[in-house]
Amino acid sequence: MTSQVRGGQLARLLGQWHALPGRRRSPDYAALAAAVRGLLADGRLPLGVRLPAERELAEALRISRTTVTAAYRELRESGHLTSRRGAGSWTMLPGGHRVASSGLWTPQDDLDMIDLGIAALAAPPELIPATRAATEDLPRYLGSAGYHPTGIIELREAIARSYVERGLPTSPEQIMVTNGTQHALDLVLRLALAPASSVLVESPTYPNALAALAARRARIATHGLAVDAGWDADLLLASIRQSRPRLAYLIPDFQNPTGHLMPVELRERLVGTAHAAGTDLVIDESFVDLPLDGTPLPPPTATFDRHSRVVTIGGMSKPYWGGLRIGWVRASAPQVQRLAAARIGVDMASPVLDQLVAVHLLAEASTIVTARREQLARQRDALLAALADRLPQWRVAVPRGGVTLWVELDGPVSSALARAAEEVGVRLAPGPRFGLDGTLERFLRLPFTLPAADLVDAVHRIAAVRYDLDRAGRPQWREPSVIA
To answer: How far apart (Å, rounded) are the C-alpha atoms in residues 265 and 431?
Structure first.
């Protein structure tokens, strides 16, 4: 799936490219080529996208065409650009280099290991009384076979009410309960995505979503998110209009891993553009319950849907507990029935007892989620303070919600830093795990879901190995196995 970036769009992404270090020692064409390589390395410029013609980019940057020609030539020589006479030039990485995103992190029994690969909270204290209450409700279901492919009615009603409270009319018939959000995504992909179909995702994005798309042999294109600003509306909508993907998977509410919140205007334009292009939207709302600092939430993306183009997935892993494998799909009633039919060949239904526990937790949502937000805000601030103290050269955009920081490092050392940090008892999720083809080495995801003392300790350990990283020998690679 091929898309094109226009001259004005690329100029906006390049920003102050003249101000790159060493400009006085390098000609303009070298600085321009280095800036394009930087956009590719941090994922803001996707791979396989066609760059503007030399004359168009020269006009947009107000420089000579000769400078652009020389920059494109250098990018071809370094393996970052491939060109065909009369057809254009496309971005790539040298030597076919690719970093897989489907690795999994497995917890170890090392009590001194601070695991920052998992972005999830421990269980709330309300879980135990909710479980006891659920066991008292269970006898009502023991007289049946226990298979409920769309979920028990009490839970579907509770989930539907949560959407209604957010201003989105929803009936229980529009809800299907799943075994977590990842399961919800997998079922949607089984129904909506034929093998080798085209899909648009954000870069960076959730690694396990990339793994699910790879399992469907999807052709994936990316929309790069800016560290501070998030989505570039013109680029995102142009990508959908030009490439007309079969499906777009997006996380508009406190995006994982960046924490960005998509503005309401873009949500409305996104739905309209997707409908015109024939693109279905899969909207992941895993973090929608976790705004911080009183951040107001925009309406759900599905609010603007008039043609059943938006399928929303969510779950209880992030605001409640990952060990409670309860997720859901919100779609039209006919779509839910088709999903239920597709599910029969996978797992039949979700456990009734877990669903009853979820009903009782959702009944206490106001108390539980309010406490979670306060806890996360304190832990986020502790992590930010520790980073400012020990690693002030790292750049962090303070998220308005969610559970993670997306940190821009002082060099493309994310994977090497993760290997070194493992040796001092800190497990990290390096940037390339959140993208495609080896990009995002300048970034690191740091969740603030652990106690503040553990986060501060982790930063101290990370800082110690960062300062020695350039001089240290290459540590042995340990292939990770879960990121959540």
So the answer is: 29
Q: Which two tokens stand for residue 414?
A: 């994310």
* Cα–chain center distance at 24: 38
The Cα–Cα gap between 91 and 83 comes to 9
Residue 134 to residue 197: CA distance in whole angstroms = 42
Q: Please state the three-class secondary structure of 331-398 as a single string.
A: CCHHHHHHHHHHHCCCCCCCCHHHHHHHHHHHHCHHHHHHHHHHHHHHHHHHHHHHHHHHCCCCEECC
The separation between CA 371 and the C-alpha centre of its own chain, rounded to angstroms, equals 24
- Please name the amino acid found at residue 252: P
Tokens of 84: 């065909």
Question: In angstroms, what CA-CA distances link 22 with 28, 34, 364, 451?
Answer: 11, 11, 57, 42
- Which is higher by pLDDT, 21 or 41? 41
On whether the CB atoms of residues 230 and 255 are closer than 8 A, the answer is yes
d(CA 26, CA 451): 47
Q: Would you say 274 and 241 are in contact if contact means Cβ atoms under 8 Å apart?
A: no
Residues 456-471: tens digit of each pLDDT: 999 999 999 998 776 6
**Measured between alpha carbons, how far is residue 195 from residues 189, 199, 217 in Å?**
10, 11, 5
Return d(Cα 338, Cα 3) in angstroms, integer.
Answer: 32
Confidence of residue 96 (pLDDT cuts 50, 70, 90): low
**HEC-encoded secondary structure of 36-48:** HHHHHHCCCCCCC
* pLDDT for residue 374 is more than 90: yes
Give the torsion sign (CA, 381, 383, 387, 389): positive
Q: Which residue has the higher pLDDT, 109 or 147?
A: 147
Strands 114-115 and 219-224, by their bridges, are unpaired
Residue 270 token pair: 């996104």
3-state secondary structure of 237: helix
pTM of the model: 0.81
CB contact at 8 A, 218 and 199: yes
Higher pLDDT, 384 or 437: 384
Query: How far is 97 from 475, CA to CA, in rounded Å?
Result: 21
Per-residue CA distances from 443 to 62, 162, 260, 405 (Å)? 31, 35, 15, 10
Residues forming a β-bridge with 176: 329
Whether 450 has a pLDDT exceeding 90, the answer reads yes
